Amino acid sequence: MFKTVTLGSAKVFLLLSLFVVSFSTALTNVFASLLLVAFILAALADRSLLRPMKLSPAVLALILYGMLILAWSWSVAPQEEVFQAISKYRKLLFLPIALALVWHDGRLARKGFIAFMAGAAFLTFACYLVWFNWMPADKYSWWKAGTPNNAFAFKSYITIGILLGFAAGACWAYYAYASTLRMRILSIAGGILFAFPVIFLMIGRTGYVVVLCICIGLVILRFRNNWKMLAAGLASVCVAFALLYSLSDHVRARSENMVLEVHNYEKSNALNSSGTRLTFYVAGAKMFLAHPFFGTGTASFAENFVPTAHRLAPPDDEFYNVRAQPHSEVVLMGVQLGIVGLGLYFALMATLGLVFRKQRTYQADLLFLLCISFAVPACFNSLMWDITEGHWFVLLAGCLYAAARRPDAATIMQRPVST
Fold it and tell me: pTM of the full predicted structure?
């Protein structure tokens, strides 16, 4: 009875976490914490639930989190910041938890994916409401809401661009597995509904990059065994995005603004949006080269960056006393754990993302697109550090990897169409 209740509760909290992750930070923290407690209790009642933890992604995620805890011992950061970082990276535990639950019950993968897509649809609907000016900002700040010129809701436009970019790719990827013409048409339409806010309604450059990478990933998945068609498909994507550049004022303006910011940074070290990021990256590279093997410990970037901040800004400037993280998961991991940490991080991404090479199933394709949606923007955003993107990735990646590796993988999400 105890096992049934705790295991059932863990599955419910997994689904709820995937549903709310798109639009509520508070509920994500609540349901994720309940998921952790319920899974631990279920594992105490039935140790066989831990057997899937031997699979490579689970092992790599646990080792990476263990390294971050161990790196406390050589960290140069204040103790309270180290504790905060360890707490932030705790979400790595949810990848093996999601993997174990889906390995136990394959139906959970489809339910979890549908839960996420439902939450993403709710988020998309809210963005359209903001665009029509039908969703004003709440006076108590219970939710975020932009303006019709930058129509985001609940989350920042950077986060929304990543989540909805993947959701659009998930719809388009279903086209190859749909059994009827009607479902194929719906898959295309659904992808457009998710992608339209990212490209035309918001100013997030990260979202533009994600949609581009998703389209490239779809071409790779579709023509992976035909080099001529692959080259033609990639060329078509480039043409399509050149057209979007001319049609979308947001894409064009934000791209031109980035070029201008980089130019100003090169001339005078201007601390504009792009210039600040480049400052972080340059400083992070120097930190990494100074301690290349094991880094300077958990949460150490902010402490190491203080001399750079003091050199670039006057004492009365906000930047002077900033406790920064570099807005790059790659830089952040390299500074904290050196080559060891980067090796574990990239090994985790590769183990998850390359499942599609051996399997032609919908969940394997989704896992590839998920890793693209996370790994590419993580080069210029600290996504595992962030609550929404980090929980979204580890929970969904665990579900999809287990679904793709199960012996009955072809029956879990959707059987491929015979050709």
Answer: 0.92
- Residue pair 289/332 in contact by the 8 Å Cβ criterion: no
Residue in the structure block whose two tokens are 């693209």: 372
Measure CA of the first residue to CA of the last residue in the chain; give whole Å: 47
Helix (H, G, I), strand (E, B) or coil at 152: strand
Share of the chain above pLDDT 90, in %: 67
Q: At what angle do helices 362-375 and 387-405 cross, to 10 degrees?
A: 150
What is the H or E stretch that residue 145 is in?
Answer: strand 145-147
CA distance 267 to 52: 53
Measured CA to CA, the distance from residue 94 to residue 256 in angstroms comes to 39
Q: How many CB atoms lie within 10 A of CB 227?
A: 9
Indicate the angle between helix axes 157-174 and 181-196, nearest 10 degrees.
Answer: 170
- Separation between Cα atoms, residue 68 and residue 333, nearest integer Å: 9
Q: Which spans in 223-361 are helix H?
A: 227-247, 249-268, 273-290, 301-312, 329-353
Q: Are 384 and 89 in contact (CB under 8 A)?
A: yes
- How many CB atoms within 10 Å of residue 279? 21
pLDDT in tens, 37-69: 999 999 999 888 999 989 999 999 999 999 999
List, as one string, the DSSP characters of 376-410.
Answer: TGGGSS-TTTSHHHHHHHHHHHHHHHHHHHSTTHH
**In this structure, are residues 292 and 338 in contact, taking their beta carbons and an 8 Å threshold?**
yes
**Chain segment 314-341, per-residue pLDDT in tens:** 887 777 777 878 989 999 999 999 999 9
Contacts of 285 (CB under 8 A, 6+ apart): 331
Structure tokens at 208: 């533009």
**Residue 93 near residue 397, CB atoms below 8 Å:** no
Can you name the residues that pair with 145 across neighbouring β-strands?
A: 153
170 touches 144 (CB < 8 A) = no
